[in-house]
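hey m, so remember when u said the tokens were messed up on ur end? i reran from scratch. heres the input so u can diff it against urs
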Amino acid sequence: MTPERLRAFCLEFNASVEEFPFGPETSVFKVLGKMFALTALDGQPLTVNLKCDPDEAIRLRGKHPAIVPGWHMNKRHWNTVTVSGVPDRLLREMVEDSYDLVVAGLPKAERLRLDRP
């Protein structure tokens, strides 16, 4: 997946926005103010930090060398994924799971507004 496709995919989700709170080189994708993805789109190699269920995070790390504990993040809840090291389909699933986990932590009224009960 290219940096452009990763950015476009992250912005496809309801109410998702791209912000730059850590400087112009780091894209932070949020839903209603809560981060679900963080990446330096011009990074070599391209990596992305994604929220993950703790048990699933351990499983994914054991199966894919390109998935490691989240760099500068809570290692239990975040993974850093080297984009070129995983299939596009898996990456898309992980981004969507990250978004869904963040949305699940929002108040019910906000979740319903996003069509994600």
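this time it looks ok to me. The mean pLDDT is 94. if urs says something different then somethings off w ur setup not the seq
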